[in-house]
Write a structure and sequence with these properties.
Layout: H1 2-22, E1 31-38, E2 42-48, E3 58-67, E4 72-73, E5 79-82, E6 90-94, E7 102-110, E8 113-116, E9 120-122, E10 133-140, E11 143-152, H2 159-163, E12 167-175, E13 182-186, E14 193-196, E15 204-213, E16 227-230, E17 242-249, E18 254-261, H3 266-269, E19 275-283, E20 289-297, E21 303-309, E22 313-321, E23 324-325, E24 329-333, E25 346-353, E26 356-362, E27 371-378, E28 388-393, E29 398-401, E30 411-419, E31 422-431, E32 443-450, E33 453-459, H4 463-466, E34 472-478, E35 484-490, E36 495-499, E37 504-512, E38 517-519, E39 523-526, H5 533-558, H6 560-567, E40 603-606, H7 622-629, E41 653-656, H8 681-684, H9 699-707, H10 709-718
């Protein structure tokens, strides 16, 4: 039993679900949103279909005239129905007046049944009036900002309703050529005309009107037909923007200044500009002020050239129309030697689209800036740079330039600071609004070649043909095997070297920007198979040098003996000369100071009559020993020399004074005579002396013996008794036999 009781609620729920599934619910109730009543024309109502409408659901709009304030349906009044097209949730019925009440419902039907929306009571808050009729629109003479409007309101609006403030009127106006329209509500006191001072001078406007009942009405009428007219002229509101370009100061202290200005905008000109007045003045001599004018310039002129002095000048510009002159625009031209303001700290230029650039900058530090000038100039190598410019306030640090900006054109954008009208130094940056591929490639040139290599150089592409920033160059070369190789080069470089080449190559250079590339004309280079001209020339020079060296050596070899005689002459050997067999007739026996023993040699030179005498001592010769025995004993012995050895230090010169029989004086008072020295062959060549008289010694022989003491020593040491030398007592004079023969 307990188990059965617990199952009963589940059974009941299942049964209820089955019943609901068998009897589907009717469609969801729609709900009327609002209705629009056009007096004596139609009523249009809009509704919401409800949640998840069925695909086959149809709707019917029911509009019934009511009694009182929607107390019940008036059976004899308006009763209209309409069915919209599939998928539409609004419908329009004809008839209806703004002073009646109406009950509005919507009925939805499908296969499941029908559902009707709650009732909506419709009265004059749903009324939509007919648009006003604008008859006339005209300017007000003497009032450049005012227009006079004339219109009419259609029924059911009455003049009483207008005067009682029951009707609202709204104005919409826009300057011709502008998209944006402005609206203004008018407080009406009359139903036909009004003067409105909402406009700019000398501007053409398009004007429309619409109306509605004041209060609970939620629907404005449609806009009336538009009328156009122009307001009256007024004097220009501001002076034109003024700037200048200065030339260098000439020798006479004057400078050429070009004043530039921008035409006033229509909203600033307030009329048709008839011309400009330009005046520049500067302080001249004391109590005197000088000035220079460009005169009255036509409206199409936007520049004026003046030759002004180098000191500080002030220039003013005013524009005028039929209504008057503008306030003057002024600019100061600083002294030519005055220090200018520093440039801005930083500058960035960003492209926005094909015809605009965004410019931002950082003002210079610690400077009181009153304004900025932004200049941009299209760069080209065929046309001069005519800058465009924009003058801004001192608190502005960014702007968008749109004047004369085109894609694929390089612009030089610069910003300079102003202080009291004086311009400072500029900070510049190149920029493109949109880059493109170059319209021409680099012009390639071959500067040098060698074995397996080539040096290339190319000219920069003209600026007006680049259409973008050159990021890199690509050198492409193709050989006889049709295999193309590439070498990338940075955009700032314009030269390249290729190596490891052999044969003939076609080479070209491609320049690339962010938007594309362009290739220049190709050149053909044939690499040399042999050595380069430099190497060949070097080898020829080396061969000629070696040939000359070999020829010189051959000549030296052929003339060896002659050259040897000239450079290294043969010195005659005194031992082989006839002097070796000559001895004097008589030995001098009177020596004053003799230091020689029988084994030594001392040579004394006479001084009195300048006739030298030779005292010879022959070692080991008995005849000589007898002669030497007659000499006085020497105070000191000479150093003993070994047989066959000649000691030059023991060969000394002394001076003999007086006759041989006189005594020897002391040491010579003059400088010591020169020691023996080996002189050149030319100086020492033995010449045959002239024959000496009988009984006299040959002077030349004595001079030779005095000059060559060593030779005399050799003769004495090498002497021997033979047929020519029977004894030393009969020494005979030397007979010179000529130079000795070569060994």
């Amino acid at each position: 039993m307990p188990r059965l009781t617990s199952c009963i609620p589940g059974v009941l729920m299942l049964t209820a679900w089955a019943c609901v599934a068998a009897d589907p619910a009717p469609p969801a109730w729609p709900r009327v949103q609002y209705c629009v009543l056009m007096h004596r024309a139609n009523i249009t109502c809009y509704w919401e279909p409800g949640e998840e409408p069925h695909l086959n659901t149809t709707y019917t709009l029911n509009v019934d005239e009511a009694r009182g304030q929607c107390d019940s349906i008036f059976e004899k009044g308006l009763r209209e129905q309409c069915t919209p097209l599939a998928g539409q949730w609004h419908c329009t019925v004809s008839g209806g007046e703004m002073y009646n009440y109406y009950i509005v419902t919507v009925t939805a039907r499908d296969a499941r049944g029908s559902a009707t929306s709650p009732r909506l009571c419709l009265w004059n808050e749903s009324v939509k009036l007919y648009p006003p009729v604008l008859h006339r629109l005209a300017a007000v003479p003497g009032q450049a900002r005012c227009l006079r409007l004339h219109w009419a309101l259609l029924p059911p609006v009455t003049s009483r309703q207008v005067s009682n403030g029951m009707v609202e009127l709204q104005l919409e106006y826009r300057a011709v050529g502008q998209r944006r329209a402005r609206q203004a509500d008018l407080g009406l006191q009359t139903s036909s005309s009004a003067t409105l001072c909402l406009f700019s001078p000398f501007t053409r406007y398009s004007v429309q009107l619409r109306t509605r009942f004041h209060g609970n009405s939620r629907h404005w009428s449609e806009w009336s037909s538009a009328l156009e007219t122009r307001t009256e002229e007024a004097a220009p509101a501001v002076g034109p923007q003024l700037w200048r370009r200065e030339g260098a100061v000439s020798a006479d202290g004057r400078r050429r200044v070009t004043l530039q200005w921008k035409p006033l905008l229509q909203s600033q000109a307030n009329g048709k500009i008839l011309g400009y007045n330009v005046t520049c003045c500067w302080e001249g001599a004391p109590q005197e002020q000088e000035q220079q004018e460009c005169g009255v310039l036509p409206p199409q002129r936007t520049s004026c050239v003046l030759v002004l002095p180098a000191p500080l000048c002030s220039c003013s510009l005013s524009a005028f129309n039929a209504a008057g002159h503008s306030p003057p625009a002024r600019i100061a031209l600083p002294d030519a030697g005055e220090r200018v303001l520093p440039p801005p700290m930083a500058l960035t230029v960003t492209p926005l689209d094909d015809s605009s650039l965004s410019v931002r900058w950082t003002p210079p530090l610690s400077q009181s800036v009153t304004g900025f000038v932004v200049e941009w100039c299209p760069l080209s190598e065929v046309t001069p740079c005519v800058p465009h410019w924009l003058r801004l306030a001192g608190n502005v640090t960014e702007t968008v330039i749109t004047e004369a900006v085109e894609p694929r054109v390089r612009y030089n954008v610069s910003v300079r600071a102003l202080r009291q009208g004086r311009g400072g130094a500029a900070l510049s940056l190149p920029a493109y609004s949109r880059q493109g591929a170059p319209s021409a490639g680099p012009r390639l040139r071959v500067t040098d070649t060698w074995i397996g290599g080539v040096a290339l150089q190319w000219d920069p592409i003209p600026i007006h043909l680049r259409h973008g920033f050159i990021r890199n160059y690509t050198v492409c070369y193709c050989g006889a095997d049709n295999r193309t190789q590439h070498v990338a080069v940075q955009g700032l470089e314009r030269r390249c070297t290729l190596s490891g080449l052999a044969g003939t190559y076609r080479i070209h250079v491609t320049a690339s920007t962010d938007a594309g590339s362009a290739a220049g004309e190709a050149v053909t280079v044939a690499m040399e198979d042999g050595m380069s001209p430099v190497v060949t020339t070097s080898l020829y020079c080396v061969a000629l040098l070696l040939l000359g060296v070999f020829g010189l050596l051959a000549c030296l070899h052929l003339r060896h003996s002659r050259i040897k005689k000239q450079l290294w002459p043969v010195v005659p050997d005194p031992a082989n000369s006839s002097l070796a067999s000559w001895t004097p007739k008589k030995l001098l026996k009177d020596f004053r100071d003799s230091c020689c023993q029988p084994q030594g040699l001392c040579v004394l030179q006479g001084e009195g009559d300048r006739r030298p005498a030779a005292v010879l001592a022959l070692r080991g010769d008995p005849g000589v020993s007898e002669e030497l025995a007659l000499l006085p004993e020497a105070p000191a012995p000479c150093p003993q020399a070994e047989p066959g050895y000649v000691d030059y230090s023991m060969v000394m010169n002394h001076t003999y004074r007086g006759s041989p029989s006189a005594g020897w004086p002391g040491p010579p008072a003059g400088p010591p005579p020169h020691p023996y020295a080996n002189t050149s062959p030319a100086e020492t060549a033995l010449r045959p002396p002239p024959a000496a008289p009988q009984g006299e010694e040959d002077p030349s022989v004595l001079e030779a013996l005095t000059t060559f003491p060593l030779l005399l020593q050799l003769i004495l040491q090498g002497g021997r008794p033979d047929a020519d030398l029977p004894g030393l007592q009969d020494l005979r004079p030397l007979n010179w036999a000529g130079p000795p023969h070569d060994a």
